[in-house]
Structure formats: C-alpha cells, structure tokens
Design a protein that fits this description.
The protein starts with 7 loop residues before the first helix and ends in a 14-residue tail after the last strand. It is globular. Strands 1-2-4-3 form a four-stranded antiparallel beta sheet. The protein has a single domain, classed as Muramoyl-pentapeptide Carboxypeptidase, domain 2, CATH 3.30.1380. Helix content is 48%, strand content 15%. Helix 2 packs parallel to helix 6. With 176 residues, the protein is of the alpha+beta class. This is L-2-amino-thiazoline-4-carboxylic acid hydrolase. InterPro entries: ATC_hydrolase-like. It comes from Actinotalea fermentans.
C-alpha cells in the first residue's frame, strides 16, 4: 500500500488495524467506539501529561512543537501555522494527513467513520494532558476545530488558545 508520507509497511499495519476495529464495530456496535473514547481519554491524556512534564513546558508553543513539528511533520502531514501574537492563539491548517488517506482506503473516513474515533478524537485529550501538567493556577489551553479531512472536509482547522480568550473549553471534545 502506497500512502504519501509513511512507509508501505506502516500503511499496511494501520490499514489492518482500522479494518479490525471496523469489523469489531460491525459485530458489537457503539460499545466499541465508546471503549475507544474511554481509552483515548485515559491513555492519551496521561501520555501527553508526561510529554509536557518531560519538557517542563505546558504552553501552546510546546504542544504545537511536539505534536506538529516532531510528530506530524515527519509523518508527512502538510500544514501551515498562523499565530496571533496579541492573544497567543495558534491556528493550524492541515491539508494532507496520511492517516486520513489510510482510513479512506479502508472505507473508514467520512462522517461516522471509524477513522475519526481512532485518530482525530485523540486531539482534545492531548490538550487535556498538557493542561494537567500545567499545574494549579497556570493558564489552560483551549482546543477547537470545526472541520476535519477525516469527516470529509477540505482541511483540518486546529485552533489552540488560552482558555481565557473566549475559545472552547480547555480540552473539550470537538465536532464528531
């Protein structure tokens, strides 16, 4: 399987993982997606709390650096960053994601597809982990997104802002 940005082996492994989750959803229904969400909430939050603690920095810039520069860029995601220095808000505009490409190949992309639960639904939990690492009294990061490639959009529009600037609740789940 050829997917831009990732090795054929990684694409195949991901494709089969997605297909197995799809088969489980077909057999057991919503309970599988509920289990995925519970796992995301527990493990992703803990993993990202540890990442922030290791860095000693739970700021928006640190989150964006770890997620987008250190993880997404090497995986071949194509994106642009726009900063608003007055508020500290960062907007990421992603136009290509190999995980969307694999999910689409597996028939798991689009509204209601398993791809969103496996990949995109982790995003608010990453922010929640950074917020837990920030400690009492620290500014909280808010995350919002109105569209995703995985759900049929032309792009993903991740927005990170400090919670006191009127953005979405810190770490809140966004669109499904």
């Amino acid at each position: 399987m050829e997917i831009k940005g990732i090795s054929a082996e990684r694409a195949e492994e991901t494709y089969h993982w997605i297909a197995s989750v799809q088969a489980e959803v077909a057999a057991r229904g919503q309970v599988v997606l509920d289990d995925v969400e519970r796992r995301n909430r527990e493990t992703v939050t803990a993993e990202w709390k540890a990442r922030a603690q290791e860095r000693g920095d739970a700021s928006i810039d640190a989150l964006v650096d770890v997620l987008w520069n250190q993880m997404c860029l090497p995986d071949g995601l194509e994106f642009e960053r726009a900063d608003d220095p007055a508020t500290g808000t960062v907007q990421m505009h992603c136009t290509y994601c190999p995980w969307h490409a694999v999910a689409a190949a597996a028939g798991a992309a689009g509204p209601g597809g398993v791809g969103y639960a496996l990949f995109c639904a982790t995003d608010p939990h990453m922010v929640a982990g950074f917020n837990e690492a920030a400690g009492p009294g620290a500014r909280r990061i808010a995350f919002s997104r109105t569209t995703t490639l995985m759900q049929g959009g032309t792009h993903c529009d991740h927005r990170y802002a400090y919670a006191d600037d009127g953005a979405a609740d810190a770490g809140a789940a966004v669109g499904r």
